[in-house]
Amino acid sequence: MIVALTPNLSLDRTLRLDRPLMPGRLHRVPEVTVAAGGKGPNLARIVRALGGETCVAGVVGGHNGAHFRALLAAEGLHGVLEDVEGETRECHILTQEGGDHPTEINEMGPMYQPDAVARLLARLPAGPVAVCGSLAPGTPLDAFRAMLRALDGPAVDSSGPGLHAALESGASLIKPNEHELEALTGHGTVDSARELYARTGVPVLLTRGPEGAAYIGAEVCVVAAPHVEVRNPVGSGDSLLGAFLYARQSGETIPDALRLAVAAGSANALLGGPLRFDAAVARSLLPQVHVVPPS
Fold first, then answer.
1. Name one GO cellular component term (predicted).
2. Contacts of 3 by beta carbon, 8 Å cutoff, 6+ apart
3. Distance CA 65, CA 105 (A)
4. Contact (Cβ atoms closer than 8 angstroms) between residue 128 and residue 4
5. What is the Cα–Cα distance from 259 to 252, expressed in whole angstroms?
6. pLDDT tens, 247-288?
7. Where are the domains of the chain?
8. Parallel, antiparallel, or unpaired for β 220-224 and 212-216?
9. What does CATH list as the number for 1-130?
10. Are 199 and 237 in contact (CB under 8 A)?
11. Cβ distance 1 to 129 under 8 Å?
12. How far is it, in rounded angstroms, from Cα 60 to Cα 51?
């Protein structure tokens, strides 16, 4: 069981626009998709598609929280959820045919509520935990560090203060992208990840967009991504982490786990997001995914 714990869950509304986004102008939306959102649910979708056991954990509130529960259940994803005061946030993803990277507009979400978090942590099933996404508004960093320590070495996919807390709290893995690593160390490179690992002892799973990904720990491995037509890259990092954790839990070596992870991230971008993810497509890309020398 891989537990996908998301401190700030959301309803994700993906809106396909009828034309390129133009500020100050009217746009019509011929297609809308609403899903139980956040990095954790995306990760769980990929783990389940690949054949693993998983659950989505977090707090929800209000009408949006009830909608989140219903959408998660409709997908057949198991949820370990606690109710809080306030309203689960909505995140809007604006896409267009043949356009650039989608425009994302994210609300804040309910304020941090320690009693609900304590109840949630007490209910988590056994298994490795991935802590995914931004912190709830008002979360004290000391409380977040204490949560990470209580989880006994989770993988952490966050940014800014969340990544700093992960490094200070004995995370088993952090998953920054190049921009997040640059904010952490001053450089978004494999060499800077090596220095970070040498200093902290926390392995780094570095996502590099269309270039692929790298794992930097006691072992260093770099994998190049295949060339695919990108339909929607949102969720590709979540897909990559989910596939990596699934493969490692299944006993795969780091190079083989990283190859599957990059194939999954590429398949997500090709197919248009985690809701459309297909494990067969990811595995069909594996012959095009190669380990390359670190640079």
1. cytosol
2. 54, 55, 57, 80, 124, 125, 127, 128, 129, 130
3. 19
4. no
5. 10
6. 999 999 999 999 999 999 999 999 988 999 999 999 999 999
7. 1-130
8. antiparallel
9. 3.40.1190.20
10. no
11. no
12. 27
